[in-house]
Amino acid sequence: MATPHRSIISHHPQLAGRSFSSLLALLSLPVLSIASGCSGDAGPGGSTGGAANSNTGGSLTSTGGGEGTGTGGTSTGTGGSSSGGVHSDGGSPSGGSGSGGEPDGATGGAASGGAESGTGGGDGRSSGCGTPFQSPPPKNEQQTLQIEGDERYYLLDVPDGADNTEPLMLIFGLHGYDMNNIAVVDLFNFTERSQGRAITVWPQGEGPHPGNVEHWGDQVLKSTWTPNEKNYAFFRQMIDTIGERYCIDETRIFISGFSMGGFFTNQMACDNADWFRAFAPVAGGGPQACANPSVQSAIMVQHGTADDIVELSSGEGSRDFWLEQNGCASSTSSSLNNCQFYDDCAADKPVAWCTGNYDHYIPNEVASNIWSFFSSF
């Protein structure tokens, strides 16, 4: 059962009555910098402003810029699901996976106006396909990887009935600022929504160990997502490690992120577009530019009209950026719940814009839209 939504303002009364810009300054949110390198080189790219000060979970240093990175959002206190021990994996990152993918009907209805099918099929089978199936860890057990001297964490949900014969989709769900991965397990629940056709991964951002209870805007972890080579190596190693253990369709890997995770998702669509088939930022913003100006990505941008933490205009900026990047027309075709798909986008690179009357949160309709979008590829 999803954790009830409670406003970050009510959880932090010191924030009440403050403007959007002053809230960002008070929370010391970073602005993401533009650097060289894009797509397969795993280098940092353009977004909406400065970088986080460190990977240690300490407070952030703001370096100015426009509308800043989103916060962890609504507060739900420290209760929640329990996380067990940790499981450690070694290995090193390798090259990126391809894009494409066959359409696969969504349980919530496929996205009309979305992408045409990609290459899909057996060519995208990971090295884990056909190997003896290893029992997956409990969903609440933090898995660990060593990334350039830092221990990083993620949660994993492998569907019942997986047997390494049929390739599965791989979907990442990212939390926001000052949150942990436990907080979004019941919200980005794509393994359940897929009825056993997808593995879901919930990575933990930069900062300390995520703990074993939910954290959401309580100023405990101050976890962040910075688009840099170390974080990109973390994602590359997660993809490779999971693909070696389980049967993954490497042409059907997807990523969604909330708030700061949404900013990071937008930047990942610039910097490592070839690692993922499609992207779905929620309540985020950016990028301002891609280091490679020819990069195009299939993307669904969602933002609540009542969001008082990351303003609607931030999501509109993301939408407008990708419309231009993907060569889309200004006309739309109605589809899905509160979503519009733009016409004449580059082949297999649709842009969808979805809004609804919700604040800084991930309501059920948002997760349902993401699954419908991803499963249309």
Q: Could you characterize the architecture of this molecule?
A:
The protein has a single domain (8-374), classed as Alpha/Beta hydrolase fold, catalytic domain (Rossmann fold), CATH 3.40.50.1820. The relative contact order is 0.19. With 377 residues, it is α/β, with parallel strands linked by helices. The radius of gyration is 19 Å and the shape is globular. The protein contains 7 helices and 11 strands. Helices cover 18% and strands 18% of the residues. A hairpin with a 2-residue loop joins strand 2 and strand 3. An 11-stranded mixed sheet has the order 1-2-3-5-4-6-7-8-11-10-9, with helices on both faces.
N-to-C order of helices and strands = HHEEEEHEHEHEEHEEEH
Q: How large is the radius of gyration?
A: 19 Å
- Tell me the CATH topology: Rossmann fold
Count of DSSP E strands? Answer: 11
Quote the beta fraction.
15-25%
Under the CATH scheme, the architecture is 3-Layer(aba) Sandwich
Helix count equals 7
Percent range of helical residues: 10-25%
Question: What is the topology, as strand order, of the major beta sheet?
Answer: 1-2-3-5-4-6-7-8-11-10-9
What is the CATH domain class? Alpha Beta
State the major sheet.
Answer: 11 strands, mixed
Oligomer: single chain
Question: First CA to last CA: what distance?
Answer: 28 Å
Morphology: globular
The overall number of domains is 1
CATH superfamily: Alpha/Beta hydrolase fold, catalytic domain
The overall average pLDDT, rounded, is 77
What low-confidence regions span 5 or more consecutive residues with pLDDT below 50?
1-122
Structural class: alpha/beta
